[in-house]
Design a protein that fits this description.
The protein has five helices and ten strands. The chain is of the alpha+beta class and about 240 residues long. Strands 5, 6, 7, 8, 9 and 10 form a six-stranded antiparallel sheet that branches.
Length: about 240
């Protein structure tokens, strides 16, 4: 009966080996399927990044790009996300566009640079314009006003009419923001003011044809006043202002 025992032993060994091989194959199949699913899921994974909605010109302040929502949040496949992609609008703070950024373009750290000190661009939005006007000390309050102050702008003109020349003064603009002043200690120099396009054009014309005055407003609680047209007749006769 020894041959029968050997046959049984051989069959049992063969079955054990076959069973072990099947179990190993099953384990390898499970591992493969798990890795495959992970690979598929990984390739389909997305990341939310900031994408330009419109053309953002070089020098545009990042804080204004964020506050005016000149971007949209887009879900991009991870393999398509650019290096240094920006995912949080707060990351744009204190940055400016290093070059033009086009609609649909992902925001990356290389698209922005640290804001230069004392830049005027960060204080302009929409219809705002910055205009530089030369002043002497008395007319421009040189040494008295500082960036961040608010001023009223007056223009003095000498106009030739049928009855001869006439001097008059009127308020040209209220509550203009001072963006830049002459260097400390300078007796005169240029003052940069924020205005809209129309006001900037009027100030440019008045600066060449007449004389501009800056009048400092209170730091808080300032109330608007319309002084009207000031003429010689008004000063001498006490006539009411022509509005």
């Amino acid at each position: 009966m020894e041959w029968a025992e050997n046959l049984l032993s051989t069959r049992r060994g063969t079955l054990l080996i076959a069973g072990g091989a099947a179990l190993l194959a099953a384990i390898l199949l499970i591992v493969y399927l798990k890795n495959y699913r992970s690979s598929v899921n990984g390739s389909n994974a997305t990341l939310s990044v900031l994408v330009a909605k419109n053309l953002i010109q070089k020098g545009a302040p990042g804080n204004l790009v964020a506050s005016q929502q000149e971007f949209q949040v887009a879900s991009i496949h991870k393999q398509d996300v650019e290096v240094g992609a920006i995912t949080d609008p707060s990351a744009l703070r204190d940055l400016v566009a290093a070059h033009d950024i086009y609609p649909g373009q992902q925001f990356t750290l290389s698209d922005f640079a640290v804001t230069p000190a004392n830049t005027i661009q960060t204080q302009l939005t929409g219809r705002d314009r910055a205009i530089q006007v030369p002043f002497d000390g008395p007319h421009g309050m040189t040494g008295q006003i500082q960036p961040g102050d608010h001023v009223d702008v007056y223009v003095f003109e000498n106009v030739q009419g049928p009855g001869g020349s006439q001097n008059w003064l009127k308020q040209l603009m209220q509550n203009a923001l001072v963006l830049r002043t002459p260097a400390s200690g300078a007796a005169q120099g240029a003052v940069v003011l924020r205005a809209n396009a129309v006001q900037a054009a009027e100030m440019a014309f008045a600066s060449d044809s007449g004389k501009l005055w800056l009048v400092l407003r209170p730091a808080s609680g300032a109330k608007s006043v319309q002084p009207g047209l000031v003429t010689v007749e008004r000063l001498l006769l006490g006539a009411r202002a022509v509005r």
